[in-house]
Amino acid sequence: MEKIKDFRINLNSDSLENVKKIKDKVENFVSENDIKNLSFSLSSLLDIPVEVINKKIKQIVYNHFDYYDKDPKFKINFSFFSSIKYFFLFTVLILFKKKLKLQDNKKKKIDIILDNVEKNYVLEKFNKTLSYFDSCLILHNKSLSRKKIHKNTLFFLTHSFFFSNSILKGKTILFLKFITKLFYLSKKKELNLIKIFFIIFYSSLKYNKIFSLYESNFLIHDRIYHSCPIRNYIFKKNGGSKVFCLQSHLAEGTISVFNDIDVLVTFGEENDTKKKLELLGAKINDSIVCGSIRMERALSNLQKLDEINEIDILLIGINIANWVGTSKNIIDIYYKHLEWITKISKKYPKLKITIKHHPNYRGDYKEDNIIKKTNIETIINPSNNLNSYHFLLKSKLILSFGSTMILEGSSLRSNCFFLDPDGKNTTFFDKLDYLQKIRITNFDNLDSLVQKHLINNNKILDLDNNKFCLPHQNASQNLFKNISRIGFHENKNIK
Predict the structure, then answer these.
(1) What is the rounded average pLDDT for all residues in the chain?
(2) Number of independent structural domains in the chain
């Protein structure tokens, strides 16, 4: 059998098929006897079911596949210094837990917990939803602004303390034997296994500590790749009922592998996202729909909308990410969609065309070369607190290679379409059949659309926009009502 470190994908092959091959390789790796034995050992030590441990191993190993490498591969090779580092960290958490005198705290009941808050915008995004609850807990790993947060909100900095945990009691020798075995097998198999299992160990200690202090029926987070089977299991073991994960992106292949989701919250009334995630190894128990709470917040203030001039064609940019390493085809068609926009600009020079990039866009010399000598305007950071959603409202035709704003914009009854030259963007669109009517795969169709809508001022066919995204105005309230409804049924079932 091919060793995982020797595994390669064929960059001339289909994009999504390559992602599935990577997924299959990870599953084969986890089924190897040495890995299975380590999983069983850690399962016993942490008192976590082995299937939960295996799910987390799959996530970790998959996340070590480097799509950015010229020759994409798994970056989990054995490193002596890295292994020593994680051996030391293991040892510190095992041996020194008893020296930490933490004040006894009675478990505090919280209405809802928000996890994985990395930046202020995540807190701002969820603020209205959280305001419907009497109390909430914010789990974050960086300092946050606490302005405009209602008074019954608690903040917990997840990486600010050592762990003192009852699950380690009486198991010091067993854990030391386990990490010694880990180090030996890491060296033997020439893989950094000790790092993989440390991540699981650390997650277990962290969430056991958090949920020993705070109990809630509900936990919520955004971005499907923030799902964590360890967290989900420990949350429910300590009295939790449901974990909700909000859709923030299309189910693009590279970020959609091995997700563990209790309740998936989608933009629109469709089931294809759930099916695609499951195809890529996800476990999803249920799904609900609420619209876009991100857009609800972004469009809460329209006072400065007049500062934006009318736009004929708005191209919403996407950042270069893992998807660029799935195949050679996807790189080619990415720049081809920019060439299409350039051709439209030259054919219809009176049209105002704008490319709106993310605020963290770092520039792209290839894009600059493609659009030079055209009247295309590029905007990255607009002034006066304007955001990308404001530009949606001022645009007649909205296009993108893969931004979820196409879905969100559809809820505004805007004319929103994906550009997918030659239909080769499979990692983004394959298995998402509900997007076919808004997926443009050849230039002639784009040209016809421009002529029909912008030149001849004809109305574009009405679509079932609720499939793509519900209206944003009540998104937070929709989410709250769905959580409350599920909570009611859970309590009813308990009785």
Answers:
(1) 91
(2) 2
